[in-house]
Amino acid sequence: MEEVITWIQARINGELLPWYDQQSAAHHFGLSYRDVEKLALENGLFPARYQRNRNTISSQEQLQLFRSRVVVVGCGGLGGYIIEELARLGVGQIVAVDHDVFEEHNLNRQLLATPDFLGLNKVAAAARRVDRLNPAVDLIPICEAFCAENATRILSGAQIAVDGLDSISVRLELAEACRRENIPLVYGSIAGWYGYVGSQFPGERTLEKVFGEDPQGQGMENELGNPSFTPAVIASLEVAEVCKILLNRGTPVQKRCISVDLLDMEFVEIEC
What we know:
40% of the residues lie in helices and 18% in strands. It is α/β, with parallel strands linked by helices. The strands form two sheets. An eight-stranded mixed beta sheet has the order 5-4-3-6-7-8-9-10, with helices on both faces.
């Protein structure tokens, strides 16, 4: 593939690869946008779409994100924002898992929900969205309800899983599956002005301590509802955790969780 890199380098100035030239290389050599991005990152070229990442994320780390596979379980209020931010960040493979379709009550807060998409599978909407905003990212839609029976297949090859669920029982099943598959899980929960976020690593049982008192419950979302901003905040904190864990940077919210109160703007750490 040296010919592709030579061709690109002859057309750009510096280390940034503009989207126009990424498109041109793909069309000229019959490659996918993903193929071109892979070659660019492996050869020290930085796709221009990620240039505002640069002082936070190095070129090698951007390549590491590109090589990562992240499973997002639930593509609604939390999951839509999680998928959007992972794709914009440059995570190369996103497995989106949800069996549900969009309904009208989703329109107030779910990023992927639009009037045109009412009745559409959420994972299909996720695939369309990612294809439009970052075609170099491989979004793998799985239109199934996550459960113990399909967990191993869904989590296969993933470096990390992310919780976008609204069911405590399924969240606990996901946590158990991640322990079994030896991968970390970033979890989040929302209701009204409030939310929780944290990370559970293999061998830990943090979620059982946080949510185990009512394992069959739906949480407080049905009672308190959800405005547009709560899922956006909690999902963003989850994506920050995912990025840190994938890059082995910073301090994860491990063996503890963060309780978020947006009404009084308080963030409280809870030991687990």
